[in-house]
TrEMBL record:
It comes from Neobacillus notoginsengisoli. This is Acetolactate synthase large subunit. The keyword Plastid does not apply. Keywords: Thiamine pyrophosphate. Residues 380-526 form the Thiamine pyrophosphate enzyme TPP-binding domain. CDD domains: TPP_PYR_POX_like. GO terms for biological process: isoleucine biosynthetic process; L-valine biosynthetic process. Residues 1-108 form the Thiamine pyrophosphate enzyme N-terminal TPP-binding domain. It holds the Pfam family TPP_enzyme_C.
């Protein structure tokens, strides 16, 4: 069979159900082979960056690698931002990238760049297929690499001539990923550390969500009775009303959790990725750390590891819960939990009226109050991302998608497609600024073509608000951070989707309820700020 046909069989063997991408001359053999697959849906998108964002969000929600596809040269470089985002946010992703015939791999050739070297720094591995007989091995290795802890991106580069050559070897068997657990001595050391301290503070990251260890974490928290704070990407690990929930940490400014962390005598960091916030921000006092993660602790002056439990986080927490953990009940001074809730505007419900101007915190509270428990909220990057990280309280984990590693503008609209294809029965809502919205607005056509249903909320203030604030603070004036916008409602109409404009909270709530009550199609609500 042709190598392209084998590649499709390998992808089917890995459980791939959808591939996002754009066809090009160098990968036409693969696209033609995909057309024969009854398992894999090829989704033609409008921009390769959107394809990578779709695969990123799909991978986070589906629990398996999302796959994106491009041709060589500009197609490959267009993928780069989305692939980098998946890598830093530890989302499993496979990038299949076309390349020129190997006979053209020289200094100067049309559309030729050294793609393996371009992608090597932003992936866990970048492999170019030269011998088609190695294709099955390379695909199996790349999927294993992308999904094993910590997950990330892997790139497979496919020269045009390779895809049409004849191969005889079959796909490799997919075997379970290996799991490691801490030694008994390591658990005893950790238990001694916990027993010896008086004021442990738990800092929880997205590794707990990836390991499906939220239940084990809640058992640990209920036993220790110590305060807990989570990173942006770990929202939803504790219910809002939980007395040990001290909400989100990791803000550059006004991080209200820091006084509580500074009172602790032991920090228990569970599944926290430094890429979300370096410890130099939240552990200036260099408090001792009990490191619980799938990987050994990174060496860092502000992360002094007193003990570490390395291995499968779910099993590790089970071992701790079975070891007779002592209660370490304490509360930071000054009613800190109440201070945080007030500062972050948590549960400060407001009855909207036709006169109330739009304010993002109140918009988030309306979404939180009216949405189903399993609703997925996707945040683009901008000032609203900070508001979402502070104020919005999801009812379940892994239902608030925030790009916080690369912090990538433009992820929200294509992310909706990845979310809806991974979780077709869930309500999906994107919140994006006007800057991020127009970066990948064209993917609305892709979603409409697929018959998907979700909500896009566009904050229209004609500026990069976060940068405006930063420049005003630093220079006392702004430059180059404002612009003019098109009519978003007319743009929605041109894509044949529902467009509404809300200038008050009352108008927004009515529009949001109308979206929830409808069953089909895409709705765009423009928030006039």
């Amino acid at each position: 069979m042709k190598a392209a046909d084998l590649l499709v069989k390998c992808l089917e063997n890995e459980g791939v159900e959808v591939i996002f991408g754009i066809a090009g001359k160098e990968i036409l053999e693969l696209v033609n082979s995909l057309a024969k697959s009854t398992q894999i849906q090829f989704v033609p998108v409008r921009h390769e960056q959107g394809a990578a964002f779709m695969a990123d969000v799909y991978g986070r929600l589906a629990g398996k690698a999302g796959v994106c596809l491009s041709t060589l040269g500009p197609g490959a470089t267009n993928l780069l931002t989305g692939v980098s985002s998946a890598q830093l946010d530890h989302s499993p992703l496979i990038a299949l990238i076309g390349q020129a015939d190997v006979s053209r791999h020289r200094a100067e050739s049309h559309q030729y760049i050294n793609i393996p070297n371009v992608f090597e720094p932003v992936t866990k591995g970048s492999t170019q297929i030269v011998d088609p007989q190695t294709l099955a091995t390379a695909i199996r290795k790349s999927f294993k690499l992308a999904t094993i802890e910590k997950p990330g991106a892997a790139a497979v580069i496919l020269p045009e001539n390779v895809l049409s050559e004849v191969v005889t070897n079959p796909p490799l068997e997919v075997t379970p990923l290996p799991e490691s657990v801490p030694t008994g001595d390591a658990v005893k050391t950790a238990m001694y550390l916990i027993e010896s301290c008086k004021r442990p503070f738990l800092l929880v990251g997205n590794g707990v969500v990836r390991a499906d260890a939220v239940g084990e974490l809640r058992t640990l928290v209920d036993t220790l009775q110590s305060p807990v704070s989570h990173s942006f990407m770990a929202k939803g690990i504790l219910e809002t009303s939980h007395p040990q929930n001290y909400f989100t940490f990791g803000f550059s400014e006004k991080d209200e959790v820091l006084p509580g962390i500074q009172e602790a005598d032991l920090l228990i960091a569970i599944g926290h990725d430094f890429v979300e916030k370096l410890p130099s921000h939240w552990n200036k006092g260099k408090l001792p750390v009990l490191h619980i993660d799938s990987m050994p602790a990174e060496t860092n002056e502000f992360y002094p590891v007193a003990a570490e439990l390395v291995g499968n986080i779910k099993i590790t927490l089970q071992l701790l819960n079975q070891s007779g953990l002592p209660a370490k009940s304490w509360k930071p001074a000054g009613n800190l939990r109440e201070v945080i809730m007030k500062a972050y505007q948590v549960n400060q419900q407001k009855t909207p009226s036709s006169h109330d101007p739009v304010k993002i915190e109140y918009v988030l509270q309306i979404i939180q109050r009216l949405s189903p428990d399993d609703a997925i909220l996707i945040s683009d990057v901008g000032a609203h991302k900070i508001s979402i990280a502070r104020t919005y309280q999801p009812k379940l984990p892994n239902r608030t998608i925030i790009s916080n590693g690369l912090a990538t503008m433009g992820i929200a609209i294509p992310g909706c497609l990845g979310a809806k294809l991974a979780c077709p029965d869930s309500t999906v809502v994107a919140i994006t600024g006007d800057g991020g919205a127009l970066m990948n607005f064209a993917e609305i056509e892709t979603a409409s073509r697929l018959g998907l249903s979700f909500l896009i909320i566009v904050i229209n203030d004609s500026m990069l608000k976060l940068e405006v604030k930063q420049m005003e603070k630093k220079f006392g004036e702004t430059h180059g951070v404002t612009f003019q916008n098109p009519d978003f409602v007319k743009m929605a109409d041109s894509y044949d989707i529902t467009g509404k404009r809300a200038a008050t909270l009352g108008e927004f709530e009515m529009a949001f309820q109308e979206f929830l009550s409808s069953s089909d199609g895409i709705t765009l609500i423009e928030l006039v700020m």
